[in-house]
Amino acid sequence: MKPKTTEALIKWLLAAFLVLAYVFLYMPIVHILFASLSTRPNFPYPPELNFASYSRLYNNSVYQSAFANSLIIATCTAVLATVTGFLATVGVLRFGGRRALFYAVLFAAPLFVSEILLGISSMSLYYLAFGIQGNMVTAIIANSVHCFSFSFLIMAALLYRYDWRMNEAAIVCGASPMRAFWEVMLPLTWSGIMGSLICAFVLALNGLDISFYLLGATPTMPSVAWGALRYGVKPELYALSTIINFAVFVAILGLYLRIRSEARKNRRRASTAA
Amino acid sequence: MADSQLQKRLFLDIPTAFLLLFFVLPLVALVVLSFWQTENYKIVREWSTINYRTLATEKAYVTFFVRSLVMAVAVSTTLVVLSWPIAYFIVRYGGRYKLIFSLLLVIPFLSGEVLRLIALQGMLGPAGLINGALVKLGAAPLRFIMYSNVASFIALLYLYLPMVVTTVYLSLLNFDFRLASAASACGAGRLQVFTEVIWPLNLSGTLVGFMLCFVPTLSASLVPRFLGGPNGQLYGMSIAQQFGESGTWALGAAMGVVLFLFSALALVTLSFGVNLRRTGFTGLGRQ
After folding, report:
1. Does residue B143 carry a pLDDT above 90?
2. Which of A72, A155, A186, B248 is in the most buried spot, having the most CB atoms within 10 Å?
3. What is the pLDDT of residue B282?
4. What is the CA angle B72-B158-B161, rounded to 5?
5. Which residue has the higher pLDDT, B115 or A3?
6. What is the nearest CA distance from A121 to chain B, expressed in angstroms?
7. Between vectors from CA A234 to CA A228 and to CA A238, what angle results, nearest 5°?
8. Is residue A45 domain-shared with residue A66, that is, in the same domain?
């Protein structure tokens, strides 16, 4: 009897700690949500429902051009990081052989170099080699290096159970390697690719350190937010922050539904096979 | 056979070339720059070690570095201690909600450093939630959480908690808990099972989590600038200033090289304790 009660006690203590941690993580986000909707952004309790700061944000031309720049950087980074990350994942898992570990460490290495170092070192290279301080292309490339490792790890975590014989089966049945990729592999690995795209997109959208050193005067959303921050936080920033958080939430929700439906399909397939 | 060789080339060499060109080469450029000088915002291509001598002798830089180091060790250690119970609960008792719990960690992580700092400022600042509530209740505001090293500490915990929990979670997820049951069936106590089976077998994943937090914390530049206050200047913030306001790129490059070498040293030291196949990161363990 006694070990059971200790077991239950440990379980509930851990559960309480988990709740506390999530409160710590989400309280600032919820606070910002209330602040963006209130006429008294400093202490928005009791909460109100006032969209004035959102319309001010919508009419602010600085944020508009910054948003467009960030969107371009984030989209290109997401695609570049995911494509290279996909090649790396397949390379390590399928063709790595005895050197799989070596390549895995190499591909994860950018994760252990801080963003600021990546930013200043890329800037130094372009400055020494071409005499330019940077532009959109260099910013996209430097962001991709950082996101590449995340893409690699996400896809590797979701792809390592993939059965490579399926590609071979498709090819034996007469499909070209390209067609085998499009019609067999891509649908089966879609959740990993989607996770990588979302993660790289959002990291590049919100990252300040890397783009800051490589873009000079071109405004991006985090750099405008950072500039505004130094002159006192305005409710527009709260609104911007809330919108981004909401978008991230929707993207993660989509990813969750996708993974869940895939798991269901697999379970059904397994039960019919049995 | 030749075809599969070609494929192998394609899949492994393209990412490798990508990293060599845009990751390794920039670091080489940084090293080169650190041995040159900057005068009046212009780079002078003369080789010397004067930047490194400045770093070693100027007291301010040593102070920043030591402060950053203490901060990074404190934050990473605290996060490992905090992350274990969370990750353990999700893996052991999460059941079919495991995925929801782990994705809930991702949302705050993805909302970006600047925006998360804005949110945190809303909590900790002079007019923020905590002090605002205290003032409303008639109490004195807490001074130590406004613009101080404590504020930086809390902010860094907030920034990297999701990352460390996720790493420990991945490690525990791939851990075979039948080993723990076996140990307790053989008569080991609860504490003994933890210290002699669960902890050592998940040490690799834990160390990776520690490093993933230690590296960015050591070079943190936004957090101290925004929340650190007058006595909170950290090393990363100083690097940012060399490349920004003061225009002394070469000195900043030398600081970057020191930072890189130190992180690499810490990484190599800790990697003696890491067996990558146990981290659960790439699924290498199950092949």
Report:
1. no
2. A155
3. 47
4. 75
5. B115
6. 5
7. 100
8. no
What is the maximum alpha-carbon separation in chain B? 79
Predicted ipTM?
Answer: 0.85
Whether the Cβ atoms of residue A75 and residue B2 lie closer than 8 Å to each other? no
Token readout for B265 is 């040293």
Domain residue limits at B197? 29-108+161-271
Report the CATH number that the domain containing residue A217 is assigned in CATH: 1.10.3720.10
Closest CA to A202 of B162, B53, B31: B162
**Residue B43 CA: distances (Å) to CA of A125, B234, B237:** 13, 25, 22
- In chain B, positions 65-124, which contact chain A (CB-CB < 8 Å)? 82, 85-86, 88-90, 92-93, 99-101, 103-108, 110-123
Residues 6+ positions from A265 with CB-CB distance below 8 Å = none
A219: left (phi over 0), alpha (psi -120 to 50) or beta: beta
Instruction: Give the SS3 label for residue A138.
Output: helix
Q: Which of B25, B107, B282 is the closest to A249 by Cβ?
A: B107
* CATH code for the domain in which residue B248 is found: 1.10.3720.10
Rounded distance, CA B286 to CA B277, Å? Answer: 8
Q: What is the pTM of this model?
A: 0.87
Cis bond leading into A46, ω under 30°? yes
**What is the pLDDT confidence band of residue B287, given thresholds at 50, 70 and 90?**
very low
Q: What is the mean pLDDT of residues B117-144?
A: 79
Encode pLDDT of B107-130 as tens digits. Answer: 888 887 888 888 888 788 777 778
Angle at B212 between CA B209 and CA B216, to 5 degrees: 145
